[in-house]
Amino acid sequence: RFLPLFYKNLGCDEAQIGVLMGILPAISLISIPIFSAIADFTNNKIVLLFTLFLSTILFPLNYFASFSSEDFKKYIILIILRISYSIFNAPVSSLLNALTINRLGSDRSLYGKQRTWGAIGWGFCYALLGIVVDTAGIEIIFAFALISGVLVLLFIALVSENNQTSLIELTELDDNNNNN
Fold it and tell me: Do 166 and 156 contact (CB within 8 A), yes or no?
């Protein structure tokens, strides 16, 4: 949500910002079906962790484009980073939804409540981030993205799906076996 401001601060004009911001929706037409199919045939959680990990790493790399002194070179770097990020970030929302529905099991009717609280949390975080950006500068979005991405990765890794064992449950099993 704050990325167009970062691009503007780098000296991109409105047309360049439009191209950069249009990359994600364009890539999602291809990326979402591909990664969803892979998740259907393999393990949704592993595919989600993979795509989320790569998008968490790729997004903050935009910051380093600001060190290029040539505008054209900077713009090309931003395009390459945006394409790379979009390939892996586009399917994350769909894969998270599938993980949530799977995790709810027979209580799938609670999905709407999950989405509501997710939207409330998202709104709260972005309102808070807006205040932080006003205080610390637009570049703080990359640190925020990295930290929040790592936290989400950890959370997903620790949450079990139906018929799968979480890392917490494995640790508890190992502790119980060591005590016997």
Answer: no
Among candidate residues 59, 66, 126, 117, the one with its CA nearest the CA of residue 88? 59
Helix axes of 14-41 and 44-58: crossing angle, nearest 10 degrees: 160
Q: From CA 164, how far away is CA 180, in angstroms rounded?
A: 24
Q: Is the CA virtual torsion 67, 73, 79, 84 positive or negative?
A: negative
d(CA 55, CA 87): 8
Return d(Cα 71, Cα 118) in angstroms, integer. 38
Whether this prediction's pTM lies above 0.85 is answered by: no
Q: Are 78 and 23 in contact (CB under 8 A)?
A: no
CA of residue 147 relative to chain centroid, distance: 11
d(CA 145, CA 60): 7
The whole-number pLDDT of residue 175 equals 47
Which tens digits make up the pLDDT trace of 126-170? 999 999 999 999 999 999 999 999 999 998 888 765 444 344 443
What are φ and ψ of residue 106, in 5° steps? -75, -10
Among 59, 64, 84, residue whose Cα is nearest residue 74: 64
Please, what is the Cα angle at 27 between 117 and 63, to 5 degrees?
75
